[in-house]
Amino acid sequence: MTPIVPTANYLLLAAVLFCIGMLGVLVRRNALVVFMCIELMLNAANLTFLAFARELGDATGHISAFFIIAVAAAEASVGLAIVIAVFRSRGSVNIDDIQAMKH
Amino acid sequence: MSQITTFFQTAPVNPQQAGQALWLIIALPLLGALTCGVLGKIIGRANVHLVAVGSVLGSFLLSLLVFWTINDFNAWAPSPFGPVNYAVGADYGTWFAAGAFRVNLGLTADHLSGTMLLVITGVGFLIHLYATEYMSHDAGYWRFFSYLNLFIAAMLTLVLADSMPLMFVGWEGVGLCSYLLIGYWYDDPAKAQAGKKAFITNRIGDFGFLLAAFLTVLLVDALAKTPVTNFDHGGRMDAATAAKRFGDGVQAKGPLAFSVLEEASNALPRVLQQDIQTGPLKGHLYGSMLTLIVLLLMLGAAGKSAQIPLYVWLPDAMAGPTPVSALIHAATMVTSGVYLFCRVSYLVVLSPKAMAVIALIGASTAMVAALIAFSQKGLKKVLAYSTVSQLGFMFLGIGSGIFWAALLHVVTHAFFKACLFLGAGSVMHGNADEEDITKLGGLRKEMPWTWATFLVATLAITGILPLSGFFSKDAILDAAANNKLEHLEWVLPLAWGMGLLTAAFTAFYMIRLYVLTFEGERSKDAKVPQAHESSPVITGPLVVLAVLSVVALVHGLPIMHPYYDSGARQTLMENFLDPVFRTANDLVRSTRYIEIEKEEHLPWLAWGRAWIIALGAGGLAWWMYRSFFPGRKPATSGALAFFKKLSFNKFYVDEAYELLFIRPTKWISTNVLYKVVDAFLIDKVAVGGTAWVTARVGSILRYFQSGDAQAYAAMMALALAGGLVWAVLKVMP
Q1: Which of B193, B317, B393, B421 stands the most exposed, by the fewest C-beta atoms within 10 Å?
Q2: ipTM score of complex
Q3: Domain segments of chain B: what residues?
Q4: Could you report the per-residue pLDDT of B560-570, keeping only the tens digit for each?
């Protein structure tokens, strides 16, 4: 029997993953990398859900994780489509070049 | 004979049903107004005439039925204070309520309302008929008849209302219709201006009416809380029961119902010298508050009935079509002030001070208006000032405490003045709208019907003995000469003197008007060489009104059995209105605020004096304008010319008002309200300031709107982190 990993460890791992993801979103300039970082954050959330589900013996956390996976897939497809559209129109996926959202 | 009397004193319909159906009298002309106003253009001129005249005729027939019903002793209107005899009425339930205050929607027709009903719908019908011909060339006929019908409906609401708020609805309604009809030809700026003048002047009066109503609410509420002994009915009922009945009545009908006020007036004499103990009026005397209420009502009546200081709108109101002048500004609307005081006669007689003011205002209005009428050149202008003057007589009657005579004068005046106005309209119709009397003349042969009826009406207004105007005017002057107000004994004799003088003036200017219009040679400045007589649709109503202004004298004859505490016989009108004024008469007898003296025999001396005055002044006018000024040259000698100029310019009252009230108001409106409040405070500070602050804040905030999604995300992350820190700090022990 392998020793049971304590829930706190999972949560810490999730927090670290989330922070790495957020840092990536905030500082990286390549839109694709930003996307990957968002996926990282989503998976950090998944991990938290699952950790608590295991701790509490409750299936709700699993279901939530499945939902997130489904939503993440949809989001990734739409996001990639946008990235491709942006690349086609501007010839770049650098976020600094895309600043249409201002006054 | 007794069979005939019995026949007319038996109700033709069930009085209770008649009371329930009173609203129909108002609804008919209202429906007519709606039909003419909305569908008038589609259904065409003839149908509009049919609807407008038909609805008023229907109202008239219903009024006749009601009038017949209330002659029956067994006709009674329900009231919380026991049935009211010689009346029909119905309470349709709560109109509006707020807390303990409520107003019921109720209609009542008693002998006073009944008389007014017949005058309004009867004269109204004749004038509608006349107007179908008079307005036959006007393109806006549907608008005209719609307004006219609406006016009839509003006026009927005014006289049928059984509470002050509902009366106020009618009061405002007639004011609105008056405004609409004066400014009927609104594309003429002068006429539109006259309409505005009438409306704004009436606003001042309506303000007084409203304040009086508010004060009445407070007064009745305070009275209901006084000790029960105040409500003692002199043995007919013990005080506690009477007090409870009063409280219940106020609960059931609201403090502004006339039945409540009438009941209150029985208790008021006991508290007039006491301070009010409760409510916002605490510390004031009941008596002074009552005087204030009556004076505020007088302000309202002065606006509507064109008395000093608010009479200036009525002469200008002649800008409206002539049928309007006859109906609204002579026969009906302008008498609503007199009607109001007859309605609340029981309050008026409790305040001799207010009565003195009313009598003096009436007498001086009568005199000033008569003096102005001396030199006016417009046919309708003279008649307008004559109306103001006659209304002054009516208020003199109110102030002298002879309410029935004031109302009789309303009735007779409605007949002869409507006849005069319609006659003037006929003259203008036949003379290419010429209304300058110096450019008319000699119409006697060319317009025989108009001439004859005009002559009868002129004689009626001058007070020649056998005509109706004599009896009503003389009854008023008689009361002013014989009655005395407590502590103010000098007022009524003074008012009587002014009234007597005014009677002479009346004879003078009316005969002048008649002579210049109908006698002598035709003026060289006349617009048409030969006048033509108007059609029978116009002369018909004239003849009816002329006949009425003669036969109305029956009401002034002292033919009824004597009054129970004096030997003098009652006149028909006095006897007829006795149920209405009984409370007031009882109060006069018990309080002795007014000393009433009645002559036991026929007042031959007073009658002879009135006749001499009328004949003398009229004869003087006849002689002056027929022989002395045959060429109609103006009087040029010093004092006379000066007076004539003064009179012609209406004593410069309009100019004085312009200088004293209108200019300051305009100055304040322009320099304070417009330039400071509107342009600066509202426009610059409030509206402009909001825009300025928003723009400044925005120009700072725009630096945060870089368009960089990552910067936004960073801001969100920072905020989230802040939230997280705050949450952790909160949950930490």
Answers
A1: B193
A2: 0.81
A3: 1-93+107-163, 373-637, 653-731
A4: 777 666 667 78
